[in-house]
């Protein structure tokens, strides 16, 4: 099955972003280690360990988000190609061979994207070093920051793209040749079919992850390494939530849909979002990830801030000048987190707009039956609004839990640390809500406009 | 032209309509200078070989597609250059359509699909309309399937749901593209009887595309299309007469 270039664009972009991020982190670590540590051997090592730890955590988060985004993109593309796949199956194509083909494309796209990303990352760092040197902020004799280690992010991103293409393409196996002639574009039999297995896997992942998260918090009271345990717990439990999304999201969506009013467009939109759980969870999960990340970061930093504040009241001498360090740390962390949020946003924009484009026939039919172009656009917009409200709610709850756990696991062991209550920075959350709404609207209005510009018959003829 | 479409006793009319698909070497002329009217309160059948332009003609008459030349009237409204919004409202209130395929909104169950035209207009069917819908659903034999979604219905059931939807609002004109194509001969006959009754009892105007001479024999009037042109027109005829005509048309092609 030949995929269209458009369908790979997001995957390529996500791979490039993740790899560029990895390259920057890696070179940054090398550079900072050289700058900070001076000559003392012991000091150098501990700085290197701390910096590497931070780099690995942030890179892992970015790659993980990229992986989920890619799996979702592939899943969306395949859902839209159900009839093509069914036709190929009808004439005798082997489902596993088709799936292997998609995964192979995943390696190629992943490798290409990662290579582009690494090159961009190196170039950016080179430029930064040049600027730093000429302005005198960096000494002239800093060592080369390009290391053979840069192969690591290349390999990691390629492997993850391959794996997530593989995971995302699993529904190819569920497509039967019969669906070539079915009127329904995306029957949800597959969702129902695997519901039990999915439920069990999700529960196992969430419970194990939650236990590890809790363990990380407890460990964090003694050592900073608690954050590593917590991170594994976070990734496991979040994967469980992603798995459970087609079961959980429709309920959240139903709640939100009730609040949307009772005009025909609003009601149809509400039903659409709920009646196709697989589609709406694929479209929303990207947004959930983004909001979770931003909330997590905001809650973590503001809890961190509370902790430092409390500690500096108890130990004023030890925390002299902490304010400045704090501002810098928070600034750096914001950028690091923002990166993963950008990857999530790319994923969301892409899945939302793809899933609107794939509904061209349905939208054409509605217009043939008397929906005005404006009503169709409003319906799509209402669906997007409903999905973004639901995802933001969900993401804020998750992010608060993860953020607090992260802050505790990383910093509970510091002087004067201990347990603090999670603190919610409202302006950041407000910003996330607004950004989510704008992104959701922007990514669905443009394709809806495209879908309504042609005559209803032309829209209906699209496959 | 001062005489209006309504005064001609027509529900819809096209004059000198052409439609081409594609450009240059691969261009196809689907309709070639067609002028024809669908009479009000009559059941009209449109016949012709595959690819002769039947679907295209219906789409253009219903305002679903634009023509490359000529004029189109729905009732007294010239819809040739009507803005999309007004055209849509017209379709919603005055036209019912049964497509050759892909008729139902996949996310809605059969009942919601039937009620969709009311929903779109932001109203609920009144008592009289509800009774009409109930009798439609009964006659079409889909009463037990109302909570099912399209992919859970057979092709013929989907088609019957679409027919119920097209007739539900009692629109001025119903277009049906091969409404009996997926039905066995008994349910096909039932659908045709239903259409004939809607015509005789409520004065419903209907235009139906079909390949089946038996189906066409239910119609008050039969139009024959070949290579994008109207080549013949007959009053009510027997299946045998219609078969003979079709065979003759195919022989001269
Ligand atoms: N979107 C399109 N693009 C290109 N050609 C088209 C398009 N739609 C129809 N045609 C061509 O126009 C001609 C008439 O098509 P139409 O669908 O009206 O035929 P029909 O009489 O309904 O045939 P059938 O009985 O097979 O449904 C055909 O030759 C067809 O190939
Ligand atoms: Mg046709």
Automatic annotation (TrEMBL), chain A:
<dbReference type="InterPro" id="IPR003838">
    <property type="entry name" value="ABC3_permease_C"/>
</dbReference>
<feature type="transmembrane region" description="Helical">
    <location>
        <begin position="200"/>
        <end position="222"/>
    </location>
</feature>
<keyword id="KW-0472">Membrane</keyword>
<dbReference type="GO" id="GO:0005886">
    <property type="term" value="C:plasma membrane"/>
</dbReference>
<feature type="transmembrane region" description="Helical">
    <location>
        <begin position="142"/>
        <end position="163"/>
    </location>
</feature>
<feature type="domain" description="ABC3 transporter permease C-terminal">
    <location>
        <begin position="57"/>
        <end position="175"/>
    </location>
</feature>
<dbReference type="InterPro" id="IPR038766">
    <property type="entry name" value="Membrane_comp_ABC_pdt"/>
</dbReference>
<protein>
    <submittedName>
        <fullName>ABC transporter permease</fullName>
    </submittedName>
</protein>
<feature type="transmembrane region" description="Helical">
    <location>
        <begin position="424"/>
        <end position="446"/>
    </location>
</feature>
<keyword id="KW-0812">Transmembrane</keyword>
<feature type="transmembrane region" description="Helical">
    <location>
        <begin position="54"/>
        <end position="79"/>
    </location>
</feature>
<feature type="transmembrane region" description="Helical">
    <location>
        <begin position="384"/>
        <end position="404"/>
    </location>
</feature>
<feature type="domain" description="ABC3 transporter permease C-terminal">
    <location>
        <begin position="335"/>
        <end position="456"/>
    </location>
</feature>
<keyword id="KW-1003">Cell membrane</keyword>
<feature type="transmembrane region" description="Helical">
    <location>
        <begin position="325"/>
        <end position="357"/>
    </location>
</feature>
<feature type="transmembrane region" description="Helical">
    <location>
        <begin position="285"/>
        <end position="305"/>
    </location>
</feature>
<keyword id="KW-1133">Transmembrane helix</keyword>
<dbReference type="Pfam" id="PF02687">
    <property type="entry name" value="FtsX"/>
</dbReference>
<feature type="transmembrane region" description="Helical">
    <location>
        <begin position="106"/>
        <end position="130"/>
    </location>
</feature>
<feature type="transmembrane region" description="Helical">
    <location>
        <begin position="228"/>
        <end position="248"/>
    </location>
</feature>
TrEMBL record, chain B:
<keyword id="KW-0067">ATP-binding</keyword>
<dbReference type="Pfam" id="PF00005">
    <property type="entry name" value="ABC_tran"/>
</dbReference>
<dbReference type="GO" id="GO:0005524">
    <property type="term" value="F:ATP binding"/>
</dbReference>
<dbReference type="GO" id="GO:0098796">
    <property type="term" value="C:membrane protein complex"/>
</dbReference>
<dbReference type="GO" id="GO:0005886">
    <property type="term" value="C:plasma membrane"/>
</dbReference>
<feature type="domain" description="ABC transporter">
    <location>
        <begin position="12"/>
        <end position="252"/>
    </location>
</feature>
<protein>
    <submittedName>
        <fullName>ABC transporter ATP-binding protein</fullName>
    </submittedName>
</protein>
<dbReference type="GO" id="GO:0022857">
    <property type="term" value="F:transmembrane transporter activity"/>
</dbReference>
<keyword id="KW-0547">Nucleotide-binding</keyword>
<dbReference type="InterPro" id="IPR003439">
    <property type="entry name" value="ABC_transporter-like_ATP-bd"/>
</dbReference>
<dbReference type="InterPro" id="IPR027417">
    <property type="entry name" value="P-loop_NTPase"/>
</dbReference>
<dbReference type="InterPro" id="IPR017911">
    <property type="entry name" value="MacB-like_ATP-bd"/>
</dbReference>
<dbReference type="InterPro" id="IPR017871">
    <property type="entry name" value="ABC_transporter-like_CS"/>
</dbReference>
<dbReference type="InterPro" id="IPR015854">
    <property type="entry name" value="ABC_transpr_LolD-like"/>
</dbReference>
<keyword id="KW-0813">Transport</keyword>
<dbReference type="GO" id="GO:0016887">
    <property type="term" value="F:ATP hydrolysis activity"/>
</dbReference>
<dbReference type="InterPro" id="IPR003593">
    <property type="entry name" value="AAA+_ATPase"/>
</dbReference>
């Amino acid at each position: 099955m030949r995929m269209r270039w458009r369908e790979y664009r997001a995957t390529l972009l996500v791979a490039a972003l993740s790899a560029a991020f990895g390259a920057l982190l890696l070179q940054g670590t090398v550079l900072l280690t050289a700058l900070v540590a001076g000559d003392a051997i012991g000091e150098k090592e501990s700085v290197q360990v701390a910096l590497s730890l931070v780099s690995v955590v942030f890179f892992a988060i970015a790659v993980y988000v990229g992986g989920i985004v890619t799996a979702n993109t592939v899943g969306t593309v395949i859902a839209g190609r159900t009839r093509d796949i069914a036709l190929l199956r009808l004439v005798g194509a082997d489902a596993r061979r088709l799936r292997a083909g998609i995964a192979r494309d995943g390696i190629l796209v992943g490798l290409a994207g990662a290579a582009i990303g690494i090159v961009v990352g190196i170039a950016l760092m080179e430029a930064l070093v040049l600027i730093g040197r000429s302005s005198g902020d960096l000494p002239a004799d800093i060592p080369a920051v390009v290391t053979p280690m840069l192969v690591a992010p290349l390999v990691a991103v390629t492997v993850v793209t391959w794996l997530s293409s593989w995971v995302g393409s699993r529904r190819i196996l569920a497509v039967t040749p019969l669906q070539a002639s079915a009127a329904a574009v995306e029957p949800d039999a597959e969702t129902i079919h695997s519901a039990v297995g999915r439920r069990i896997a999700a529960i196992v992942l969430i419970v194990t992850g939650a236990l590890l998260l809790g363990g990380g918090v407890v460990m964090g009271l003694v050592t900073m390494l608690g954050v590593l345990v917590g991170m594994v717990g976070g990734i496991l439990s979040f994967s469980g939530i992603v798995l459970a999304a087609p079961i959980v999201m429709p309920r959240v969506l139903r709640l939100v849909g009730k609040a949307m009013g009772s005009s025909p467009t609003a009601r149809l939109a509400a039903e659409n979002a709920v009646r196709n759980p697989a589609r709406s969870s694929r479209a929303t999960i990207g947004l959930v990830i983004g909001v979770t990340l931003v909330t997590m970061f905001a809650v973590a930093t503001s809890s961190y801030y509370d902790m430092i504040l409390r500690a500096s009241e108890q130990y004023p001498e030890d925390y002299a000048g902490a304010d400045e360090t704090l501002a810098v740390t928070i600034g750096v962390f914001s950028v690091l987190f923002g990166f993963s949020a950008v990857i999530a946003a790319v994923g969301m924009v892409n899945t939302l707009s793809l899933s609107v484009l794939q509904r061209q026939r349905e939208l054409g039919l509605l217009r043939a039956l008397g929906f005005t172009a404006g009503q169709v656009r409003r319906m799509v917009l209402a669906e997007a609004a409903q999905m973004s409200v639901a995802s933001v709610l969900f993401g804020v709850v998750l992010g608060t839990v993860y953020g607090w756990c992260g802050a505790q696991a990383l910093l509970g062991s510091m002087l004067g640390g201990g347990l603090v209550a999670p603190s919610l920075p409202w302006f950041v959350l407000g910003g996330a809500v607004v950004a989510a709404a704008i992104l959701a609207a922007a990514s669905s209005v443009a394709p809806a406009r495209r879908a309504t510009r042609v005559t209803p018959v032309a829209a209906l003829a699209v496959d | 032209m001062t005489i209006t479409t309504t005064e001609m006793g027509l529900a819809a009319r096209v004059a000198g309509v052409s439609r081409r698909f594609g450009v240059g070497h691969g261009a196809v002329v689907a309709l070639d200078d067609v002028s024809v009217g669908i009479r009000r309160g009559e059941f009209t059948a449109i016949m012709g070989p595959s690819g002769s332009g039947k679907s295209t003609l219906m789409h253009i008459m219903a305002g679903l597609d634009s023509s490359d030349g000529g004029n189109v009237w729905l009732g007294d409204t010239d819809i040739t250059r009507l803005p999309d919004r007004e055209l849509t409202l017209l379709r919603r209130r005055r036209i019912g359509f049964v497509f050759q395929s892909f008729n139902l909104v996949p996310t809605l169950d059969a009942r919601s699909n039937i009620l969709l035209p009311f929903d779109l207009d932001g109203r609920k069917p009144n008592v009289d309309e509800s009774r009409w819908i109930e009798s439609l659903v009964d006659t079409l034999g889909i009463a037990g399937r109302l909570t099912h979604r399209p992919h859970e219905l057979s092709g013929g059931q989907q088609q019957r749901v679409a027919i119920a939807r097209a007739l539900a609002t009692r629109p001025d004109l119903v277009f049906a593209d091969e409404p009996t194509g997926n039905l066995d001969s008994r349910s096909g006959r039932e659908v045709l009887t239903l259409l004939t009754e809607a015509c005789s009892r409520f004065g419903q105007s209907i235009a139906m595309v079909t390949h089946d001479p038996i189906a066409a024999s239910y119609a008050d009037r039969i139009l024959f299309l070949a290579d994008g042109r109207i080549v013949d027109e007959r009053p009510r005829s027997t299946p045998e007469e219609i078969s003979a005509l079709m065979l003759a048309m195919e022989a001269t092609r």
